[in-house]
Amino acid sequence: MRRLWLIFAQAVTVSVAVLFVLNTLKPEWLRAGTPGSVISILEAPAPRIEGETAPNSYAAAAQRSLPSVVHVYTSKEVRSQRHPLLDDPLFRHFFGERPDGGNQRTSGLGSGVIVSPDGFVLTNNHVIEAADEIEVALNDGRKFPAKLVGRDPETDLAVLKLKTDAQLPAITFAGGSDSLQVGDVVLAIGNPFGVGQTVTMGIVSALGRTHLGINTFENYIQTDAAINPGNSGGALVDTHGNLVGINTAIYSRSGGSLGIGFAIPVSLARSVLEQIVASGEVTRGWVGVEIQEITPELAESFGLGDTRGALISGVLRGSPADRAGIRPGDVLVAVDGHAVRDPKNMLEQVAALSPGRTAQFRLKRAAGELELNVEVGRRPTPQSNGRQ
Question: What is the mean pLDDT of residues 286-315?
Answer without folding.
Answer: 85
